[in-house]
Amino acid sequence: MGAFEYLLLFTAIILGLAVSDLAMSLHRLLGAGGRVKWDWLAPLAALVAFLKIVTQWWSWHAAEQLAGAVTFEIFLMLLAAAVLLFLLAAAALPDEAPAGERIDLAAHYAAVRRRYWGLFLAQWLIGNAASAWIQVAATHARFDPWQPAYLVVLLIGSMILIRNRAWQTVGLIVFVAIYLAQSFGQRLG
């Protein structure tokens, strides 16, 4: 097993724990049955977190040729990005509620919205900084901070600041579309 496999394995464990947390939270919600007051925003946030995790792993797997440029500092950034993804996934759906207590998914999303999008922004910034650092180190590419992808920061910032449910719905759907389109049709090998 080479250095890249060790890097991928360690970060994949953290991402696997994040997916496990999402699955367990969903399992608890389904098990709570009639005690759950369903709403679309929290499950949509969980779907965005899931797709973000999957596309993150996919992009890391596709970056094998850049692994030689990963320094300890970049590795720490990648681990921080993975931990932030775990925290994002954990925030998306509520933890177990005491027996007999109702679980209101609209209230949950309203309570965690700013934390969810703050974690999203932090993960996006750290992940993209690490990616840019690796690409510059590996290919001696010129770093261009004004790429259109950085407009995503404005969208994420608006998600932190604007409480409007319609805007939150649109933002979540935009990210579902982005993450599906990002890797659509790509092959692993």
What does the model show?
This protein is mainly α and 189 residues long. It has one domain (3-183). The chain is 72% helix and 2% strand. It has helices spanning 3-32, 41-62, 72-92, 105-139, 152-161, 165-183; strands at 36-37, 103-104. It has a two-stranded parallel sheet with strand order 1-2. The chain is globular and about 55 Å long. The mean pLDDT is 87.
Question: TL;DR?
Answer:
This protein is mostly helical. 72% of the residues lie in helices and 2% in strands.
Main β-sheet description: 2 strands, parallel
Mean pLDDT: 87
Percent helix range? over 70%
List SSEs in N-to-C order. Answer: HEHHEHHH
Query: Unreliable segments (pLDDT under 50, ≥5 consecutive)?
Result: none
List the helices and strands and how they pair.
Blueprint: H1 3-32, E1 36-37, H2 41-62, H3 72-92, E2 103-104, H4 105-139, H5 152-161, H6 165-183
Parallel strand pairs: 1-2
Helix pairs in contact: 1-2, 1-3, 2-3, 2-4, 2-6, 3-4, 4-5
Keywords:
189 residues; 72% helix; two-stranded parallel sheet; mainly alpha; 6 helices
